[in-house]
Amino acid sequence: MTKTTRRRHLIGQAALIGLSATGIGSGFLSKSMAQDNTPLLKRIKMATIGAGNVDLVVELYTTWLGYEVAERGTISADLAGIWDAPKALGQPYVQLRPQSGTDVYIRVVGIDPVSGYTAMTTWGWNSIEIVCEEVDDLYEKLKVSPFEHIGGPANLGGGTMSIRAVQFKGPAEDVMYLTTETGDRQKSPLPLPGSLVDRPFIMVLAGPNIEAIRTFYHEKFNVSSYPPQPTPIGLISRAQGLPEDHVYPLTMGRMREHGNNFEIDGYPDSTVARPRSEGHIPPGVAITSVTVDSLDELDVDFVSSPATIDGIGYNGRRAGLIIGPAGEWLEIIEE
Q1: In angstroms, how far apart are the furthest CA atoms of the chain?
Q2: 55 Cβ contact partners less than 8 Å away, ≥ 6 residues apart
Q3: For position 68, which CATH number holds?
Q4: Strand (E) or helix (H) holding 292
Q5: With contact defined as beta carbons under 8 Å apart, do 176 and 167 qualify?
Q6: How far apart are CA 104 and CA 95, in angstroms?
Q7: What sign does the dihedral 171-102-202-282 (CA atoms) show?
Q8: Residue 137 CB: number of other CB atoms within 10 A?
Q9: Helix, coil or strand: residue 141
Q10: Could you report the per-residue pLDDT of 198-224, keeping only the tens digit for each?
Q11: pTM
Q12: 97-132 pLDDT, tens per residue?
């Protein structure tokens, strides 16, 4: 098993050892992590991209991925306030949804560009994984698009598994893993797609201390994970100028609803914290928004007081933002 195939194999492992409410495979977890396997985080609600050119990103996602514009506007004072990002106020945003109509979104928000920023070289959210109906024809379509092809298509597990994926990068350094189940979808760890390109279902997080990240999400949100596996990930090594066979510690953490997960990658010492323009959200894959039953049940430090937010994705519910151990922006919405 080599390069990205081993990394993708871990989705299947997560299904067996972390993604079942029955606790199947809990022997892979520490005793403390196996006590209660009901995560406080329910599901992914939005993936936010910080882009210097919002219209360009929107054009590519609508033209080539079939996404639809659900909402356009400018960032409100309440939203900029919970982010503690004063220069986000008034920035344009576009809320995109898949043709399936599922209420999980990709949001593109305007920022002042960050010179020299390259995806998969800094800590924080690095990639969005999207469930698809089929990836081979999609690859043939996208390889002539403005998206940059960076990996696949290939089956997980060195070709032994039925999950298949291909990877592309967009103009805002937004990396996408496009993934499908080629076998029995009723038994798959992936959510069921309702359109050719459907919804985000995994958000990929990177940091210099994978155990600190793993511990944080378990202690704060009861997100269980398994001991990190040394995994060569070719597309990340290429971005970081490392040998193709360089290994990264990698694990998967589960949220409550089926097929909603974090991937956590351990990055080497040569990587750095995500740069951003002062007062703006980060560039590239900037924010992961997740849902919980209640903000009041959480023991977390919000960067600013949670507020009621209007618009698609929030629907007049409270939301707040925390900064995780790798500097990642995690927005939490009551649902």
Answers
A1: 50
A2: none
A3: 3.10.180.10
A4: strand 284-292
A5: yes
A6: 10
A7: positive
A8: 12
A9: helix
A10: 999 999 999 999 999 999 999 999 999
A11: 0.90
A12: 999 999 999 999 999 999 999 999 999 999 999 999
What 8-state DSSP symbol labels residue 256? S
Place of tokens 């209420």: 103
Domains identified in the chain, total number: 1
> What H or E segment, with its residue span, contains residue 58?
helix 54-64
Q: Which candidate, 87, 98, 106, 71, places its Cα nearest to that of 315?
A: 71
Residue type, 282: P
DSSP run (H or E) holding 237: helix 234-240
* CB 290 within 8 Å of CB 333: yes
Which amino acid does the sequence have at 60? L
Question: Locate tokens 């081993």: which residue?
Answer: 6
C-alpha–C-alpha distance, residues 11 and 8, integer Å = 6
Q: Is the peptide bond before 243 cis (omega within 30 degrees of 0)?
A: no
Radius of gyration of the chain (CA): 18
Mapped onto helix, strand or coil, the DSSP state of residue 14 is: helix
Residues of the domain holding 279 = 3-334
Cβ atoms of 262 and 294 closer than 8 Å: no
Cα 335 to Cα 333: distance, rounded to the nearest angstrom: 6
